[in-house]
Known about the structure:
Blueprint: H1 3-20, E1 24-32, E2 35-43, E3 46-55, H2 69-85, E4 94-102, E5 105-113
Parallel strand pairs: 3-4
Antiparallel strand pairs: 1-2, 2-3, 4-5
Amino acid sequence: MNKRQTGAFWEEAAARYLQRQGVRMAVRNYRCSRGEIDMIGYHLGCLCFFEVKYRKDDEFGHALESVDKRKQNTICRCADIYLYRHHIAQEQPVRFDVVAVSGTSIRWVQNAFYYQRGKG
């Protein structure tokens, strides 16, 4: 498998994992002028924006470490656009989660990072 196929395979595995945990998926691979969000869904009343990161192993760092401030900012700006375009109420709780895949192990980190709408 090439990198794109590997990424798609593990994104699908992550989506299945999240759905088994009670996440109701709304959108996969949301793209806008600011970038892309891997998955958007609802969990326990929160609108969740999911970033999926895969690493074959931890030799070059853990998958969680690759979601740096720059990537977080990109995800937040995409979320701003999604919230605006879909008329999501300001009162809607929003959460940013990371699904880290290392080897064949999936780890879901809820509230992996924070943001304020329209900031940054």
